């Protein structure tokens, strides 16, 4: 079986090998033939060590495909079913799930430390317990979410992570109010999805902030009312809000420097929503006086901040109705053999989302 493997954390290229096998299939498990997978920035963050992940590993967590085998005890899913991969399945029984915060369930994270592939040289992990840069993957049955026949695999893959994360940040976590002002810092696939979410919620002004000109141009097509480079944000704040600051600011980069900028760009009493996944040693500094005096709400958003299964259904319904554009999010397509080209497209910022067709 072919798969793209990172041998050591810190390497910037993947090696596509054909000697990889899935392991772990059995009761409660399913085997998926991956048909399409998106390249998410979290995959790159795991490769360079920003996000913790044992190596060697196969990146990829934003995927969709067909069920090719079902283990004992699995119900509701059959061979041949079309599914998307949920990298953070809810167990339904832990305290977070019982509180209705299934996006905070830790059961899925436990899978990241268990190898689900092997090579002659030894065990291979799958990123976030999945590893969709492979022709096949074995996951817990809860990771396989059936999708309707009219949803293409590439669209389903995006819904499996980036779209759900960005839309949910605006709709669930921040609960953007109609007529409000919004700034989105970082306009890749997740940031563009946050822009679409803010537009759906009725934001009056949506300022897209990104250093890459092509991404700024794309943001305007997806609903931003203005797009600026990072060094133009202060001027936009002055023009749009008379210097007060935006009602909502979304940080979709995952760095303390941009989070600090986002805090300073949020009005007093406004909402800063942290969407980007950053490093454990990258600390955001805030002083106790400004926390008290500004009364700004700081809301981290994990996987869209809501029940992911309902979020998937909502995204599909909005896509069917033409209320969100998912097809245009996919700006590049490459076969698995050209995965390193996809990585370059992400690092340079020329791609919103690259679909790897497997």
Question: Outline of this structure?
Answer:
This protein is α/β, with parallel strands linked by helices. The chain has twelve helices and 19 strands. α7 (213-221) links the parallel β13 (205-209) and β14 (226-228).
If you had to describe this structure to a student in words, what would you say it looks like?
The protein is of the alpha/beta class and about 350 residues long. Helices cover about 30% and strands about 25% of the residues. The chain has helices at about 40-45, 95-100, 105-110, 155-160, 160-175, 190-200, 215-220, 235-240, 255-265, 290-295, 310-320, 340-350; strands at about 5, 15, 20, 30-40, 55-60, 60-70, 80-85, 115-120, 120-125, 135-140, 145, 180-185, 205-210, 225-230, 245-250, 265-275, 295-300, 330-335, 355. The strands form four sheets. Strands 4, 6, 7, 10, 11, 18 and 19 form a seven-stranded mixed β-sheet that branches. A six-stranded parallel β-sheet has the order 14-13-12-15-16-17, sandwiched between helices. A four-stranded mixed β-sheet has the order 3-8-9-5, with no helix packed on it. Helix 9 links the parallel strand 15 (about 245-250) and strand 16 (about 265-275). The model has no long low-confidence stretch (mean pLDDT about 95).
């Amino acid at each position: 079986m072919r798969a793209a493997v990172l041998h050591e954390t810190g390497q910037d290229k993947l090696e596509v090998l054909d000697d990889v096998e899935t392991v772990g299939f059995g009761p409660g498990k399913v085997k998926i033939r991956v048909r399409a997978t998106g390249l998410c920035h979290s995959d790159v963050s795991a490769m360079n060590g920003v996000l913790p992940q044992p190596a060697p590993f196969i990146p990829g967590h934003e995927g969709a495909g067909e069920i090719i085998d079902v283990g004992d005890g699995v119900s509701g899913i059959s061979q041949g079913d079309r599914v998307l991969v949920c990298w953070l399945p809810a167990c339904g029984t832990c305290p977070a799930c019982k509180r209705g915060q299934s996006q905070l369930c830790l059961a899925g994270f436990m899978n990241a430390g268990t190898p689900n592939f092997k090579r002659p040289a030894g065990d291979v992990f799958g990123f976030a317990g999945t590893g969709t840069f492979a022709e096949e993957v074995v996951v817990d049955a809860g990771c396989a979410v059936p999708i309707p026949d009219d949803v293409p695999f590439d669209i389903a893959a995006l819904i499996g992570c980036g779209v759900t994360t960005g839309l949910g940040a605006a709709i669930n976590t921040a609960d953007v109010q109609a007529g409000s002002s919004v700034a989105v810092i970082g306009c890749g696939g997740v940031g563009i999805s946050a822009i679409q979410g803010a537009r759906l919620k009725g934001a009056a002004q949506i300022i897209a902030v990104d250093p890459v000109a092509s991404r700024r141009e794309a943001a305007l097509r997806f609903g931003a009312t203005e797009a600026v480079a990072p060094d133009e944000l202060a001027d936009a704040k002055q023009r749009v809000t008379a210097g007060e600051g935006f009602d909502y600011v979304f940080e979709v980069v995952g760095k303390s420097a941009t989070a600090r900028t986002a805090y300073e760009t949020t009005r007093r009493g406004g909402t800063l929503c942290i969407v980007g996944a950053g490093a454990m040693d990258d600390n955001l500094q805030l002083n106790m006086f400004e926390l008290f005096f500004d009364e700004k709400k700081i809301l981290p958003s994990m996987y869209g901040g809501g029940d992911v299964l309902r979020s998937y259904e909502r995204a599909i319904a909005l896509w069917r109705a033409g209320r969100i554009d998912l097809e245009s999010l996919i700006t590049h397509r490459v076969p698995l053999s050209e995965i390193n080209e996809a990585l370059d497209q992400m690092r340079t910022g020329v791609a919103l989302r690259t679909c790897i067709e497997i």
